[in-house]
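TOKENISED FOLD:
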Amino acid sequence: MLRSLILYLAQAAWAKNLIMRIGLARRTAHRFVAGDTLEEAIAATRQLNSNGLEVTLDHLGESVTDETGALQATQDYLELLDAIAHNGIRATTSLKLTQLGLDIREDLCLSNMRAILEKAKATGNHVTIDMESSDYTDATLHVYRTLRNENSFDNVGIVIQAYLYRSEDDMKALAAEGAFVRLCKGAYKEPPDRAFPDKADVDANFVHLVEQFLTPEACAAGAYLGIATHDEKMIKASIAHIKQHNVPYENFEFQMLYGIRSRLQQQLRDDGYKVRVYVPYGTQWYPYFMRRLAERPANIVFFVSNLFRR
């Protein structure tokens, strides 16, 4: 019930307007967000790179409802890609299609994505399309495949969510296509006819999908998996499969969120695994912050305890 309430508040305009005015909320959110500006994101990336960690940068924003906003978000990503190249940092990028106009017109979204992917290709970079709620799964996969099938865009990846029933079929198809996939649990409120309602079932499906995807055939086809979890049990299960089946290290990496389980990130890196940290930044931090609170009770405790500190 608490998770459902928080996810409701993540979408409620009145709650957003209230909480974003609370300075303490902004300061607490910065545990999970590198800052409001690109410069702060670059600085955070440099620090992570110095510790041997890779980064994917996300300029926060979603659910854009006007063409001007979608074009501005596109420009922000073009500037981000230029900044990555100019500063010589090790970072890719991640974005949401509703940020680029998917709710307005698919052709607008595709046009904006092409501009971003062209810039990424010119600067030797990669773009991962984040997955939003299940209402967008088909449309997001359609945009991804449209772009991937354009021969010049082999630098685009996609996210799949383990809590959806459909993900097994999606992962099978993507593995055969030699896709770059980030596998995460999923952070949206979904109906029980679309997603596993119990955490144990989501966790079991996550491990199953890792094992299903990281096969010799998929690896030979060029498939690459970002194993995006902070759960040590699922990480250990993934490593056991990798070792048992001699999965090449160039076909996977571990991915974690900025500000969460930093010691575990470093331990995996020290153990020889590639680790990428998802680093969000920007002023539109509210929905991202609320979804992080909904994911783990420990995050809620951290937030509430800070409310009572001077």
